[in-house]
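Reviewers of the previous submission asked for a worked example of the structure-prediction workflow described in the proposal, so we include one complete record here. The input consisted solely of the amino acid sequence. No template or homolog information was supplied to the procedure at any stage.
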Amino acid sequence: MICPTCHAPNRDDAKFCKSCGQPLYVQPTPTSEVEIASGDHVSNTATSTQQDDASSNVQQKIGEQQPEYILSEESDDVSLEPTLILTPEKMIAYQSRRWQQQLERNGTYVPDTMEADATKGDSTPDPSAELKESADILSAMPETGKSERAQDTGDVDIADVPTIVAIPSANDVDEIPPPPLQAESSATSEESISSGEKVDAESDEIQMEKKAGETEAAEVTSEEEKSETMQEPSDQHETTASTNGFPILSIGEQILNRYEITQVLNDSAQEHVYQVIDHQGYQHCWNCGSEQNAEGDEFCINCGASMLDVPYTIHEYSTEQSSEESNGHIEDAHVVQGTIVNTFVEHGYTYMVEQQQVEQPPFPNGVLLLAASNSDAGNVRRSEPNEDSTLVLLLQRVFESVSTPSGVFIVADGLGGHDNGQEASRMTINIIAERMLRELLTEPLTSEKNGEPVKPFDEDALVALFHDTVEEANTALCQKNQLDKTDMGSTITGFMVVGEHAYILNVGDSRTYMLRGKQLYQLTTDHSLVGQLVAGGLIEPDDVYTHPQRSQIFRSLGDKPNVQIDIFKQELLPGDILLSCSDGLWEMVRNPQIESTLDNATDPETACAQFIEAANANGGEDNVSAVIVFVR
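From that input alone, the workflow returned the following structure tokens.
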């Protein structure tokens, strides 16, 4: 099918475009597919013809010229020159011969190009020889063939051009490392021709040079003094360091021509851990695990996730280390915390590809709240007015499958023994409900209705709104007391939920709790005499239930114009349960029973009923009120 966005051809069963990642909705017409396929065929044919012509031109030049290496006459750019290839056997022979000649000259290095003109007794080096001392020995060697890639296309791979390697000075002969053995030479050759492409011998002269090189290499290795200084062959990878013979791969190097190393995370003797990017991410979708994508797909056809340069972690073990690990002998090995998506063996090393666990948002579909409240006069004060009041104000909208709640949940306990305690709690609830409904809930809805941009609430604005609302209730109570010559007041506790956060409020000795992971936490501090005694270490926490002055509080609404209000932020997680209650509940139902009731409740309404029943069963000495919110 054809993508309606970028017009790229896709498979018929693809759900997302492999080129742009957009969902596929429009079915293509057969004519468009034929035209596109035909166009691709013509383009590919033209490209193939150009490549064949280029290849034949290079082959013709090889046949016409017989120098030891080939240089283009059309350009001086070294990146455009044919690849200089050296077989492993000739490399060993040449390095051994250079090494022996250098030692025989007592540290004086003379290139082959100058041996014919310089006598053995000449002690004054030619200036041009000093300039050539830093040149790679490969730059003076003849070309013995071309890589398969160059022969097929006629193009030249700049990665095959020999690099420049500095040769130590004559005074440092003792510190010069011995020439590498065949394995290291093979590694260098294999790297220069990209992933093991072979070099074809094309003449009898090359075969003779190979035999001569092997003979010279054998003579060098037969000498006991040189064999003692020979090093063990290194791994085929270019390394930046090694740990106990376990080489560390360099940044930018690729494993399997697929995983490019971007960072070394661990270089211990037991294992090496690298951060890599996968240039063939289409083989396994990191998001949905689909293996139905094909090379060239930029986006997963199943889920639309990007397939380009997907990051992973690779663990590297040598053969010995892998064997020891399987027998349980490796200590301090890195613990795999992600998902293993691939394992393979390359160059004698075992690799394990790990996809790190992506931290999922706690609420992928938004926050869902279940809320309920209940209140009872209690056994002892059954004949008196219930001075407690509660508020559950919840706006919960779901659009685009995401729930976005906003709510205010309050418990107000009118002060007993004063005039009109129930009136104080009622006024507090009404004032808070009216302002929060207007500013927190109604104004955003009105703006949406009128097509106006909705002003988002930041944290400071939410805290200021909550604080000002409670302060407004306190001012109203103070004015009422001055006008009517009364002494009414109220404690208040509760919370405002906006999105994934709750803002906890408290004035007085009512409490707000949170149950998280079967553990109960008291979020508020009692503004009472016994609360201060406990904080100062003068009495035990359990003494607050029986202390003779437990009813004395020093902070409440309606007492003075500038009341101190506690407000703080609490991040929510799925499964949290919030409880706000009056002192008539927490004094009758101790914390262990509160924890058990919340943990076993199936819904907020059931939990509220169970708390009232438990408080009355344990004495019911005061009004009992509770507001409970389940976070889902």
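Residues 30-64 form the longest helix (35 residues). We consider this example representative of the routine output the project will generate in years two and three.
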